[in-house]
Amino acid sequence: MLTIEPIDQRHLPAVRALLADYPFLPHAYLASVVGLQPLSRLGLAHVEASLADETAGGLLVSSSEGPKALAVWRFLPWDSQQLGFVCARLEHIVLAGDYSQQQRLGDLLLPEAIRHCSAKGVRYLWARLDSSNLSALHLLERHGFLTVDGILTFALRLDQAVVSELLASRSAESAARVRPARPEDRQRLVQLARSAYEHDRFHSDPLIPRPVADEVYALWMENACQGTAADVVLVAEQQGRVQSYVTALLDREAEQYLGLRVGNIALVGTAADARGQGLAQAAMQGTLAWFREHGVQVVEVGTQLRNVPAARLYEGLGFRLVATSISLRHWLG
Asked: How big is the CA angle at 195 (ends 191 and 201), to the nearest 5 degrees?
């Protein structure tokens, strides 16, 4: 007999048991470097952080044999403010057993999770799942989720000799000047970010008008310049004008739990009239140099499945594809 109940701190041992063999943990591609246990500890820390948030919720499915499935979600105040309706993210959905067992568990768990979110006023519920997690993907699709995005995640080890050669030659290869953004660059950067994107989940979702999606990135850049959404913004300027940018963030969680210093690149953009001139490459090289100066060992960057130019840019800099994921959303309005 299966039981379903809200998750709280008492259930953390059960959560830990479910995550012990879960193959879709954050930074899973690093398992051969750091081992499975640190990845499981990081996954557990994510669940604990969600449960510690008073705007989060979760459900646990158990039987007499132990825990079988869990779902954890968190409300997204910033997204809600920008999009104009209450948003939440289904951050974790873990199902035990084979495919058929997972589907039965999910058919019990997911409708209850959706009901809980709807009762709290959520109208827009989204999730990002590893594209190999077919069972969970099929489950979400069957229960009303719509696919809006596909993500390619690339990673680069900064201790590679090829990276040293790349960084050593960057000044000679580009006429662009790369430097950290200054306060007087903010208006230009916000302007660039407002018109730089079209393949992402906001622009791909028919529920979200184009001007609203554009403004999401303008405000994201605003926060990056203020230091709340990035540790640094690197810009490439040509003839004294900022034409390209990269926002970079240090992953302090990865360092704490994996013993590895990881850097994340969130936003990369170039002015429409300056594309194809190597400016994004120059800004990326400057960002890699910044990461190396700050002791980063691995750099991650993601792009949409449809964004072939970005994928080519990252591969040209030595990045290698390490993960793929799918973004889905459910409209509860």
From this structure: 125
Q: Distance between CA atoms of 141 and 73, rounded to whole angstroms?
A: 17
Residue 191's alpha-carbon distances to 19, 114, 237, in angstroms, are: 43, 37, 15
Is 331 within a domain? Answer: no
Query: Is 58:95 a contact under the CB 8 Å cutoff?
Result: no
Residue 21 included in any domain: yes
| Same domain assignment for residues 132 and 221 | no
Does the pTM exceed 0.90? yes
Say whether both 20 and 158 belong to one domain: no
What are the pLDDT digits (tens) for 80-97?
A: 999 999 999 999 999 999
Per-residue model confidence (pLDDT) at position 11? 86
- Picking from 239, 266, 238, 241, the residue whose alpha carbon sits closest to that of residue 251 is 266
Q: Is residue 332 included in any domain, yes or no?
A: no
How is residue 19 written in tokens?
């995550």
Which distant-in-sequence residues (6+ apart) come within 8 Å of 230 by Cβ?
A: 223, 224, 247, 248, 249, 266, 267
